[in-house]
Amino acid sequence: MRSGARLATMSGMLNATREPAATSNGAAGPILVVDDLRVTFSRHGRVVHAVNGLSYQVRPGRTLAIIGESGSGKSVSVRALMGLLPPSAHIEGSARLDGTELVGLDDKSWRAVRGCQIAMVFQDPASSLNPTMSIGAQLIEAIRMHAPLKRREAAQKAIDLLKLVRLPSPEKRLKQFPHQLSGGMRQRVVIAIALSSDPKLLIADEATTALDVTTQAQIMELLVDIQERLGMAVIMISHDLSLAACYAHEVLVMYAGKAVEHAETRNLFSNVRMPYTKALLDAIPQLSTPAHLQPAIVGGHPPDLSALPEGCAFLPRCPSSTEQCRIEPHLAEHEPEHAYACWHPVSRDGSCTGQKEERP
Amino acid sequence: MAVTSPPGSATLSPAPLAGSATRWSSFRRRLTIWISGSVVALLVITCYLGPFVLPIPSPVGGNVLDSGLSPGSPGHPLGTDVNGNDVLSRLIHGGRSSLTVGVVVNIIGLAIGGTVGAISAYLGGRADSIIMRALDVLIAFPSLVLVIVLAQILGPSLPNTILALSAFSIPAVARISRAATLKVMSMPYLQAAELSGSPWWRILSRHVVPNIVPQLTTFAMLGMAIVVVTEGALSFLGLGIPPPRPSWGNMIFEAQQSMSATPLLVLWPSIALLVTVLSFNLLGESIRDEVTGR
Amino acid sequence: MSGATTTPAAEKRTRVTENGPAGEQPEGLRARLAGSPVLRLVGRRLMIVIPLLFVVSALVFLLMEALPGDPAQIRAGMDASEEEVEAVRQQMGLDRPGHERYLSWLGGALTGDLGSSVVSGRAVTTLLGERLPVTLQMAGMAFVLSIVISLPLALAAARRPGGLVDRFVMVCSMTLLAVPNFVMALLLVLVFAVGLGMLPAIGFVPLAEGVWPNMRSMILPVLSLAVPMACFYARFLRGDLVEQLNAAAYIDTARSKGTGPWRILWLHAFRNSSFGLLTLVGLNIGALVGGTVIIERIFAMPGMGTLMLEGVMSSDVAVVQTCVFIFAAAAVFANLLVDVMYAVLDPRVRYGSH
Q1: Which residues of B touch C179 (CB under 8 A)?
Q2: Which stretches are transmembrane (chain B) (predicted)?
Q3: A231 touches A58 (CB < 8 A)
Q4: How far apart are CA C228 and CA A254, in angstroms?
């Protein structure tokens, strides 16, 4: 049932791709500039390189999807932007939000940024709300953290926020507790908390992974709608390509803590160049292709982040690797608006065959 | 779900990184196990072999003329007590009583309580609720109160002290064993074993017992500390090991009466008790952390 | 809740909630009362607690039968003739069969007659009236003090796990936890009474003779009881808080709101850790009661503990029976109270978890 719903989404994937945002937004400078971000953990005497020189920009009103397997560093990279990494994490490079450098902020400055300028929606709505506090208390806490409102004003704003996220009968919800709400409703509350102080950047870290497929679509539509109304920038972290294809303006594919391909959504899916991205796409089951004819899924294992090989990290799993791949390829715009890091990009006609047949 | 991650892929998510112990703390935990374990071993060796190996006088039958010798007196490194008995010798023999009581009570508790708890959880239903109600009754009594009454009924002696203390050790272990068994029973692999038709004795011996034994043994370490303290309290009240046979508890009681004159006599057995309890607590806690991988 | 092992009380709780009666719904106020999960929980727990107390009282009675010493002989005096002892025995009703005597004791107990001391001949209820307030005051103060000490220590330690404060609190609490309360009492007496002469070594001054003298006589006993308990609670709470901070997703949500570290600790993590602490405190009431027995003995406090010990030593059945039963009942009701507080504090129980 689940895969059925997914296939339905996939078939309409490319024509549903979001058009680049309106020119007025497009002209604005980037709200977030990440430059050569590196995150390492020291663990049992080994150094784990979770993020290895990640660079990207996000403009207001735009959605960037960061895609990758578990352990590709996608989640770590955004948690670094929120200052949510444990003290054992070592962060280098630069991430500037509206001109403010985030790397190396002290605890106090972090509190002014978090919630106020960047907000985050987490993966599991079942555990990301405090089970012992009412919805209202959690929402009002967020509102009053950054705005000097009286309790009653904050309560009114809480109701407005719950209306914004289209939670039915918001007045009643304030007194309820998380366990009395369904998963989708809880995620709406988490989004309301995130929106409480008009953030410039919203990070959705696998925000729909724990929800069932219909709720998933509702929550994503809600996010898109709110973004269009409020004009904020969104980074969505996912391992679900179809979700990215439907809801993101641009897609960044991460592998072993690095960006390996980065382009406008339409560009990327119609013209995949990085073999890893292609492998991910091929791994999606297609109704049009019988199971036995479908290409093999990505073989091998994700790399050990504490002992990365020289050269391209995807080399051991790559079907088209050569000696040249022992030298690390760098992410560069080999084509206009399409950056990838590969010596042997997938040829135009060989890419995404399954997708093209699906297009009407 | 994992469309994009290949089957069998070893995932390295950031979550375990966040809560994991660093190398230093796991090293420190091992060190704690080694140090506290060594202290426990040293205690056991001193108390059980000491009387045969060390040149110490008898713990009883001292000459009153030798009473109250200060530490460092010839032949009495820690001095003598009010009855003229050698303090070091009494400490070692007293430790032997305490450890014997602790070990035997815990073995009885583990054997009876552990079995009752595991069987109760395994049987479930009516049998389980009857057993648990019976244990509820025993647990309703504050342990020391029950032990005091039992000790008075049985009369003061070493075996009776052991019996009285077992009365609170058995239900405590049974509860832990039952909770641990219930947890194992809810695991999918156990249901798989049941569905595949393994006989009950095989399920118990292969799946349940190996999974609850680590938890019970670490509890036994903490239980040692509890039993040694309770034995001390009981002997302190004159209901445990009867004088002249030394025990840390009755040594503290005897010394208490002349506390202002010779405070050291209170301190020696107190320190012995503290070191014993501390090392068993540390050993139990660090083994538990090691097992649960915290 | 936390990932800690299931505590017996928590386990009992789930068992209780499973077989909830879904009886008919009366109307009006009664319906609302019946509909309140808290009251339903109290009702269900009472259904267990009341029979439990009867069984406990029967067991106490059986234990008393086994207590050495013949009450009739004691009452009649050691040099009484056999006939005299027999007469006393009949007068006390000790010649009747056991179950009859139990029932008459039970009947008396339910109507407020607990018999009289074999040794002093005074009514047990009178003795209780004198002794119970002393123990209640001591145990109550120790209880409050242990919580008051442990909460700030645990919160301060959990603020920076592995930091200086944390290590200091953990090392101190581990060491003090290893000091049994009767040793703690003697050490405190050595330092504050014998050494510094600041406080009385033994004895109890009733509240009627002034608040300060009463407090002075209470300080050392209360400290001996409270310090080991406080260490126990502080260690547990610190561990649970750190686990919440490290593992719980709602902590991330709170952090990403911009909430400060202390507020996160106090408002978010502590709220969730408090349930585990509550269970622990409830289970520990038995240990507190046991502790009062030995501490009262050391400080010669005229409380329930000394009353029981004197009774045990002199085979004063009526006294021991009452004391043991009251101690057990106190522990049982403490756990009942914990369950109720659980229901009041935890919204998942309060509103039912559907």
Answers
A1: 270, 274, 277
A2: 31-54, 99-123, 135-154, 160-177, 216-241, 261-284
A3: no
A4: 53
Q: What SS3 string covers A169-234?
A: CHHHHCCCCHHHCCHHHHHHHHHHHHHCCCCCEEEEECCCCCCCHHHHHHHHHHHHHHHHHHCCEE
Cα(A144)–Cα(C260) distance, integer angstroms = 13
pLDDT in tens, A259-276: 888 988 888 888 888 888
| C107 shares contact with chain A (CB less than 8 Å) | no
Task: Quote the CA–CA distance of C82 and C92 in Å, as a whole number.
Answer: 15
Residue of C nearest to B263 (CA): C190
* C141: helix, strand or coil: helix
Q: What would the pLDDT profile of B19-28 be if each residue is shown by its tens digit?
A: 344 566 778 7
pTM of the model: 0.81
pLDDT of residue B262: 79
Structural domains present in chain B: 29-48+85-266 (1.10.3720.10)
Token pair, residue C26, equals 């009366």
Report the distance separating Cα A193 and Cα A210, nearest Å. Answer: 18
Nearest to A87 by CA among A60, A58, A64, A110: A110
Cβ burial, residue B145 (10 Å; 0-12/13-18/19+):
buried
Q: What sign for the dihedral angle of Cα C229, C232, C238, C243?
A: negative
Residue A76 to residue A205: CA distance in whole angstroms: 10
Judging contacts by C-beta atoms under 8 Å, the chain C residues touching residue A118 are 256
Query: ipTM of this model?
Result: 0.79
> What percent of chain B is helix, strand and coil (3-state, nearest 5)?
75, 0, 25
In chain C, the domains with their CATH numbers are 37-110 (no CATH), 124-350 (1.10.3720.10)
Residues of A in contact with B12 (CB under 8 A): 48, 70-71, 302, 304-305
User: Does pLDDT of B11 surpass 80?
Assistant: no
Q: C238 touching A, CB under 8 A?
A: no
Distance from CA of C29 to the nearest CA of B (A): 34
Chain Cα centroid distance, residue A339: 18
**Contact assessment for residue A60 and residue A233, using Cβ atoms and an 8 Å cutoff:** yes
What domains lie within chain A, and their CATH numbers? 2-253 (3.40.50.300), 272-356 (no CATH)
CB atoms closer than 10 angstroms to residue C192:
17
Stretch B244-265: mean pLDDT: 85
Give dist(CA C147, CA C145) in Å, integer. Answer: 5
Q: Does the structure show a pLDDT above 90 at B103? A: yes
Cis peptide bond prior to B244, omega within 30° of 0: yes
pLDDT tens-place string over residues C33-68: 556 777 777 888 888 888 888 888 888 888 888 877
Could C268 and A196 be called an inter-chain contact, meaning their C-beta atoms sit closer than 8 Å? no
Q: Which of C182, C187, C202, C246 to mutate to test the interface with B (most CBs of B within 10 A)?
A: C182
